[in-house]
Write a structure and sequence with these properties.
This protein has helices at residues 18-33, 48-56, 85-97, and strands at residues 2-5, 38-44, 60-71, 74-84. By secondary structure, it is of the alpha+beta class. The protein has one domain (2-97): 3-Layer(aba) Sandwich (Aminopeptidase), CATH 3.40.630.30. The chain has a four-stranded mixed sheet.
Amino acid sequence: MNAEIGFWMGKDFRNRGYMQNAIKIILIFGFEELKLERIYARVFSINEGSINLLKKMGFKYEGILRKSFLKDGVFMDDLIYSILREEHIKLLLLKIQG
């Protein structure tokens, strides 16, 4: 089973670690409580902050949905990132050992 996460943070609250902490909690709950195999997120290709955050949290790039969303009259590309249960566990183990 898998699940999608999505997030948005107001400009005044960005770069304070709030979203990183929220994603950590979501990953723990999703993998340990819900027994998910995969958690994924879709992000606009122009959203470098969210892309970097997903990478930092261990998500891997899977692909692109070209012009999949219309925002303010402009079609936007969505990028798909995901993390698997075994990747999450491996990251946790590395943090404990390191």
